[in-house]
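S1.2 Input.
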Amino acid sequence: MSIPHIPLAATEADARARDAADPLRGFRDEFLIPPALDPSLGEDTQFYFTGNSLGLQPRGIREALLTELDDWARLGVEAHFHGRHPWMPYHEEVRAHLAEIAGALPSEVVAMNSLTTNLHLMMVGFYRPTAERHAILIEAGAFPSDQYAVASQIRFHGFDPATSLIEVEGDPDTGLIGMERIERALAEHGSKIALVLWPGVQYRTGEAFDLKAIAALAHARGAVAGFDLAHAAGNLKLALHDADADFAAWCSYKYLNAGPGAIAGCFVHERHARTDRPRFAGWWGHDPASRFRMGPDFVPTPGADGWQLSNPPIMALAPLRASLEVFHRAGMDRLRAKAIDLTAYLEALIRSRLHGVIDILTPSDRDRRGCQLSLRVVGGRARGRALFEHLATRGIIGDWREPDVIRVAPTPLYNRFIDAWKLVESIATWRDTAG
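S1.3 Output.
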C-alpha cells in the first residue's frame, strides 16, 4: 500500500487531499487525541507528534482493562481459568501479534517486564566476558538507560567500562553513524568484543540501522548480536528471525501505544530455544508441564518463554493486547508504506518552505529512518527552545532533546498529512514574526 502520488503543493488543500486518499485514515478514530489546551486556536485537538515518546491511547484499552477488572470481581482466582481471557495463559494471547511486530516465530517472543530489565536478563545469558573477549560495543550517545545497563554489567563481571565499553562515534555535525563506522569499529576491536548491543533506531537522530547486516558483522567477529528496539518496534518492519539476531528487547509505550510504563517485549532466536546459557530463573520460565509440581530444579520452557520470571501482569498485558489488535488489522506493511509517504511529505515541506531555518539531522534515505525526523533550528539552542515553546502554544506537540534537537514523529495510525502541514505552517509563521 502507498498513498496515491499527488504532486507536492505546499497548501492546506493539498494536505487534505492526501488525507482523503489515505486508505488508513479510519484508524485515527480508534485513538483518543488530546484536546487543544487553548480552545481559541480553532482546532479541537492537538497536533500530536510524540508517538516516539508516548503513543496515544487506543479506545479499546479501556474496555480491555474493564474486562479484567470485572472478571476479577466476578470470579476471583477462578479468572485464571474461566475468565473471558483466562489469566493463566494470558501472555499467549499477545504472542502471535507480537511476533508479527518483531518479524519472528511465535516461540521467539514474549511480553514481560520492562525494557531495561529485559536487557539485563538477556545480558546475563548472552554477555559472557573472558579475559580476551570482554568488550561491549554500543553507539556513542546511546540512551542513558542503555549506557547505565552495559556499564553496570561490565563492572559486575569485574571489568572496567573505561576499557571494555567501546562507543562508535557519529558524524560530529549530525551524529549519524552509518554502517562504515560500525564496520571500522568491529575491524579494529573485534577480537575483544563479546557483545554488540545496537539500537534499531537511534533515539536522538532518528537514524535506522540494518539489523541483519550488523548481526552478520558481529557474528563474523565472534560476538553476540543484541538489539534495543525501543524506537523501532511498531515503527519499522522488523525481521528479527531472518536478521539472525541473538536477542532483542523493546518497550511498548512508544509506537506500540500500550500506555505509560507498559509491559515490554523480548526476542530470543530459536537457535537458543534450548540453550544451556546461564540465566536468572523464575517460576514462570519453568516448563509449564511440570511447573505446578513445585520441584526444586528449574527446567526452562523452550523459547523466549523460558526467560520469564514471574506470572504475567494481567493489567499490563491487557492494554498491549488491545493495541496489538489494532496493529494486526492495519498491518505493518501498510503502516510502513504510509509512514514512508507521510515522513517524506513532511521532509519535503520543510525543505521547500523552511530552508535556512531548520536542518534535518535524520537521513533522507527511507531505509535509514522510520517516522521520526530530528530537527535542529539554525541559530543555536536558545532559538530552538523559542521555536519549541511557540509550537506548544499552537497545540503542536513534539519533544525536546538536549542540547538542540526537536523530535517530531508523524505516526501512521493517527497522524495526518494536515498535521504535517500545520507543523510547517506554524514554523513559517514563527520565522516571519518572532524568529
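S1.4 Remarks. The two ends are 39 Å apart (CA to CA).
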